Amino acid sequence: MRERRTKIDPIVRLIDGILDFALITGLPVAVGFLISITARPCLLTRKKNTMDVHSLAVVPPAAGKICLVDDDPSMIRALDRLLSSAGLQAQLFSEPLAFLSYITCNSVALAVVDIWMSSLNGLQVQKKLQAVLPKTRVIIVTATDEDSVRDAAIEGGAIAYFVKPFEENAFLAAVNSGLASASTLG
């Protein structure tokens, strides 16, 4: 009986943590979190994962990890090509909830977030990101320029705000600045 209890206690603690997470961030994010822990063994494992030395060379350092979050596939592809042309790699997310699930297990140096998306707006994503990873730098991109949205994004910690279409060199300069400042914090 005692052995069974020791196996159940971690599960109860995990469920309590998920319920707390749901209360803090909202139910849709908690559902995304549940999906992420069942798909990724980073939070709940039965055995210890081992990693050989050669696999470490393939994984980019966390200080340089960039995420693009936009529900427009053509915009994600365009931004990804632009970053690739500058020798940078990005993790792509067309769904904000998938991104928020991803950050529960991964460090991110810089997030480029669209404002107007279907399930959550970019300001909500920015707020949740800053609560989980406060050192992550955020660049906001949007198709409409509204002073109130710009002010809220900058107040929320965004290091840059771009209205589409924007100057590629200015965007890349902001990305490089964000990566540089993130590496000095981490």
Tell me what you see in this structure.
This protein is of the alpha/beta class and 186 residues long. Strand 1 (66-69), helix 4 (73-85) and strand 2 (90-93) form a beta-alpha-beta unit. A 5-stranded parallel beta sheet has the order 2-1-3-4-5, sandwiched between helices. It is globular and about 50 Å long. It folds into 2 domains: 2-51; 60-185, 3-Layer(aba) Sandwich (Rossmann fold), CATH 3.40.50.2300. It is built from 8 helices and 5 strands, in the order H-H-H-E-H-E-H-E-H-E-H-E-H. The N and C termini lie far apart (45 Å).
What's the SSE blueprint?
Elements: H1 2-25, H2 27-39, H3 53-56, E1 66-69, H4 73-85, E2 90-93, H5 96-102, E3 110-114, H6 122-132, E4 137-142, H7 147-155, E5 160-163, H8 168-185
Parallel strand pairs: 1-2, 1-3, 3-4, 4-5
Helix pairs in contact: 1-2, 2-5
